[in-house]
Amino acid sequence: MDAWTGHEVPKLPGNATPPELYDSSRRGVFPTTSGPAATMYVCGITPYDATHLGHAATMITFDLVQRLWRDAGIDVTYVQNVTDIDDPLLERANRDGEDWIVLAMRETALFREDMEALRMIPPAHYVGAVESIPAIAAHVRELIAGGAAYTLDDGTGDVYFSIAATPSFGYESNLTRPEMLTLSAERGGDPERPGKRDPLDPLLWRGARDGEPAWDGGDLGPGRPGWHIECATIALGLLGNRIDVQGGGNDLLYPHHECSAAHAERLTGESPFATHYVHAGMIGLDGEKMSKSKGNLVFVSRLRGDGVDPMAIRLGLLTGHYRSDRQWTDETLKSGEQRLARWRAAAEAPTGPSGEALLAAVREALHHDLDAPRAIAIVDTWVEAALTATGTDPEAPKLMSRTVDALLGIRL
Ligand code: 5CA
Ligand code: ZN
């Protein structure tokens, strides 16, 4: 499917190096790439509701990764998916008496609009699960043929992946087995289902059921894909056997990214699937994770409809470090709006302190695991000085504006 339309990103003077990022599997901060190119796969939305601020925060995180790579002259290939067929989508469509395809198309269109408004650099490939079904089914058949997957003998036609098929299962999330069992039950898995070889084995293919959409799976019979194999197949098809960054919110640490990696590694025989597994913190409201199932959502489109400047939303979300779980409050938005106004005023000032020094400091802050809060504090200091006519560099306001546009995605 088509992604959204991008904006021009200003080219900045001087040199930058690719960022260092925290990798959940190695539990430390490591350089992302040493070569001229980099690949990134980010887990996108399940389109049964509008884009909320949690989705936006996660997408902004990986937008910054792409911006920093580009600033360092890296040739970036970025892929994002849309889970346009899965249980939650069908449940919502049934609840509302709506066609699931219409629901998915509408919410995906709204997501694209929100991404454009938030000045997200579009992915090179924006791919739906539905359009990937033939490739996914082929992978499931290959896993069965290789002894890594099995069909349940209860007549459903459901196929499961055997986690015993990858010796390193668990390396990505670093969780204990009891923790995995708990999270599996909470996040779409079915550890209690009888007949599985291991309670943690994830679903690869769900055999057709009455009243549910199904696709031809060849020898698998009709059905629809499981969630983790969707992302493994899309990433392998477009980015090759090893990707630099596998991204998403930290709710995907387990089972999603662990199982996607296990599927891919079993299919390719190469490990690890991703050099970095990067996880953004959860955005919450009133002390709870913002999620469609809890219904405590602040929608990007609702704020836009209320006349909020998307740049203030973006700035508000960037004031917390990407890895920390954090709350969205009215204050977050207010401070984003006030800061945006001050930055805009300073960008119009006749002079300011050195623009080159500002650029170097912002680059340095972001280089270390995307320290956007520190980058924002550095810009704030520069802005205060410019607004009190402390600096003498007449080129600095323009360079400040280009810096925050290119590196933070904030258009002044
Ligand atoms: N389609 C799957 C991924 S393949 C999915 O998780 N969809 S989603 O709509 O639930 O979430 C889309 C992206 O936003 C994922 O990367 C998810 O980790 C992230 N996300 C979801 N809720 C939040 C939240 N409250 N805060 C931050 N990120 C979130
Ligand atoms: Zn995914």
* Proportion of helical residues: 40-55%
Low-confidence stretches: none
Helix/sheet category? alpha/beta
Q: How many helical stretches?
A: 13
| Terminus-to-terminus distance | 31 Å
In short:
The protein is of the alpha/beta class and 412 residues long. It has 13 helices and 14 strands. The site of zinc ion (ZN) has 4 residues, from loops.
Features:
single chain, 412 residues, alpha/beta, five-stranded parallel β-sheet, four-stranded antiparallel β-sheet, 13 helices, 14 strands, elongated, binds 5'-O-(N-(L-cysteinyl)-sulfamoyl)adenosine, binds zinc ion
Written description of the protein model:
There is one protein chain. With 412 residues, the protein is an alpha/beta fold. Helices cover 42% and strands 15% of the residues. The protein has helices spanning 53-71, 87-95, 100-117, 133-145, 177-186, 227-239, 253-268, 300-305, 310-318, 330-347, 355-367, 372-387, 396-408; strands at 20-23, 28-31, 37-42, 75-82, 125-128, 149-151, 159-161, 203-207, 223-225, 243-249, 274-280, 283-285, 288-289, 326-327. Helix 10 (330-347) crosses helix 12 and helix 10 runs antiparallel to helix 13 (396-408). The longest helix is centred in the first third of the chain and has 19 residues, at 53-71.
